[in-house]
Predict the 3D structure of the following.
Amino acid sequence: MKKTLSALAPFIGIIAVFAAWFIICRLGIFSTYVLPTPEKVFDSFLKMLVSGEIFEDVIISLVRILKGFSIAFLLAFVLGMFRSLVPASEKYYDYIVQFFRNVPPLSLIPLLILWCGIGETTKTVIIVLASFFPMYLNIVKGFTGCDKKLLEVGDAFGYTKFEKFKHIILPYASADILVGMRIGMGYSWRAIIGAEMIAASSGIGHMILFAQEMSRTDKVIVGIFVVGIVGLVTDKIFGILLRKLFKGNGENGWN
């Protein structure tokens, strides 16, 4: 009984939200312009699904995310590795990293538009800035938090700095790396939606903004649901692939 209830728990929560939504609409607490009925939203979703409109926007946003996320991870990993192998180097760039970590990426859009226009470069830079810092901080945490006893074992075997990094530090830090990548992926989705609302003519963010301008609240809600669903799916797929890649070393934080 407990196992069945545990398995049904997520669905119970979802049903409760939709039931509350349905009741609010039936009572007429809000106008259908402000809050369309679930039936209206579902009908719009089906029409967008059949026309292929929603798939086109999802793919465009996903490609942008994968591009920016890959660049951000490469930069975070290389800089984190450099920080681990040359600890004294941190004092030269740590304040710069901390400064930009506290600057919201979307606040840079006006400047990026002036520099790069409203093309793909602006959106890529926004994704890189959004996803870099959580990955970098978790990578540094993993690399610098390695058990000293394991490093002493490496010294006993005559490992060089790079060999200790490859055979000891990297496997030890894999869980922190995975957590950072998971957070970074979530930040990427948040950033691309905001960027597409301001500087794009395609993608899910643009679709939501265009629907709002056309007073199509139902399509706005469809866009919000799609963002949540696609983000959840990519998160789960990402977790499964990384668990296999690291042979279970990164299961901490993955469900």
